[in-house]
Amino acid sequence: MATSTSKSYYWQGFRDGTPFIFVAVPFGTLFGVFATEAGLSILQTMVFTAAVFAGAAQFASLQLLQDGTPTAIILVSALAVNLRMAMYSASLTPYLGAAPLWQRAFAAYLTVDQSYACSIVQFEKEPDMSVPQRMTYFMGSVSPLVPMWVLATFIGAYLGTQIPDSWALDFALPITFLAMIGPMMRTPAHVVAALVAIVVSLLCVAIPYNLGLLIAGCAGMMAGAQAEVMLERRKVAP
């Protein structure tokens, strides 16, 4: 009976995660194209996407690679972009923290925006789920994304080797970032964080190795957090 229930949670997670394919496929394809445009081979592109498995960090790292940024700064920048994953992990720990270490390690690798969004909603909706059921649901939610992301990256990398240099597709990378950021502007705190980050990045544009972006990111996060605190105080104020 328990096995049957776990299977049903897996397929429930699979169904909940499937719509995100429509986001993962175009972004994965685009990353594959730009990775080969930046000089990576198809094999290097596939190793890159399998090792990192984080769309925003992959795009950011690719941009820095094109600019000839030192490896250490690329790694720090990628970690900064993925800082939200630490918050996701902290949020999931009360639900998955009792799982075996190897399962938690696997879940950590597969924690992305989509798997987190599906899982946290499900776990809060059904608080009586057991830890194995929660882990089964989590794995189900990310199962449709992993093969499609890898396949889309391969297709993009293959297509990228066929695109003539005269097409000059570099302009699409900043447009992609704008498309990723736009839907995230859901609260005043998000808007404040974005505006502060933009202003600081412009002021720090002369700093070498794009370190101004890290400074701008930190400033934006602090401003957003402060704006969130101020908004919460207004809500509780008489």
TrEMBL record:
The answer to whether keyword Membrane applies is yes
Q: How does it sit in the membrane?
A: Multi-pass membrane protein
Query: Cellular component GO terms, alphabetically?
Result: plasma membrane
Q: Which UniProt keywords apply?
A: Cell membrane, Membrane, Transmembrane, Transmembrane helix, Transport
Principal location listed in the UniProt entry? membrane
Superkingdom to which the source organism belongs: Bacteria
Q: Which residues cross the membrane?
A: 20-40, 137-160, 191-224
Pfam families linked to this entry: AzlC
> In Gene Ontology terms, what is a biological process of this protein?
L-valine transmembrane transport
User: What is the annotated localization of this protein?
Assistant: Cell membrane
User: By its UniProt entry, which InterPro entries does this protein fall under?
Assistant: Brnchd-chn_aa_trnsp_permease (IPR011606)
What's this protein's family per the entry?
A: Belongs to the AzlC family.
Name the record gives this protein: Inner membrane protein YgaZ
Organism whose genome encodes this protein: Ruegeria arenilitoris
